[in-house]
Amino acid sequence: MLSSRQVLSLEQELKNNAYPGRGIVIGRTPDGKHAVAAYFIMGRSSNSRNRVFVEDGEGIRTQAYDPSKLEDPSLIIYAPVRVLGHDTIVTNGDQTDTVYDGLKAGRTFEESLRSREFEPDGPNYTPRISGVLHVENGSYDYALSILKSNNGDPDCCNRYTYTYDNPKAGEGRFIHTYLHDGDPLPSFYGEPKEVEIPDDMDAFTEMLWNSLNGDNKVSLFVRYIDIATGEYRTRIVNKNE
Question: Is 146 helix (H, G, I), strand (E, B) or coil?
């Protein structure tokens, strides 16, 4: 019986898609030693493109590159990454804070997101994508979530959560907001894509950044977390420098 398993080239996935929107990649290095998270943002409007990632404590936040040109901060200014104890939260919106507060109050990742839905930016109704990595005492697991309209119908919110216990070395999952460019933008569909994760953090960062569409890419965050110690290294790349 043939396996339906398909590990995709993340490089080709990005190079062949001019506008995946915002994307989260989570996985584990081939040597098994590091948990990996990456998050990128793209933009088609001048307001969306007028952004940079900056470090904020153990996490990051977006801020306007040129504050004088900031038109509407809603949906574009937020903290994509926050850390709570052994949990690293990565999302494409202010639901980072929702997950952070929920975990702090003893709720699960999935429970925390039940109070949220897709973004109110019709006709796109951009999905909210979220991830959480839990690294503790040499063990590692992660989860991904997407909250989306029902095929463009804003009266219905479809919620999907995918959990990955003891992730296999060298593998990751990739989820993004849009299938491709369009008007309106079509939402991501199906399970998170299985992709390869390398040991070399700098090479991974360079590959991701160089594979994103040159006109639409805005910022990239990459973090490698030592599963044994919890120590981490971070890379941030901004088009606006």
Answer: strand
* The pair of three-digit structure tokens given for residue 179, joined into one six-digit string: 């299938």
Torsion angle in degrees (nearest 10) through CA of 128, 16, 124, 121: 60
Flag whether pLDDT at 241 surpasses 90.
no
pLDDT in tens, 23-47: 999 999 999 999 999 999 999 999 9
Looking at residue 157, its amino acid is C
| Phi, psi of 13, rounded to the nearest 5 degrees | -55, -40
Structure tokens at 131: 């991830």
For the segment 128-147, what is each residue's pLDDT rounded down to a tens digit?
Answer: 999 999 999 999 999 999 99
Strands in the chain per DSSP E: 23-28, 34-42, 51-56, 59-64, 81-84, 87-91, 128-136, 139-150, 153-165, 171-176, 193-196, 217-226, 232-238
Distances (CA, A) of 54 to 1, 45, 63: 49, 21, 7
Token output for 165: 């216990």
Whole-angstrom distance, CA of residue 84 vs CA of residue 82:
7
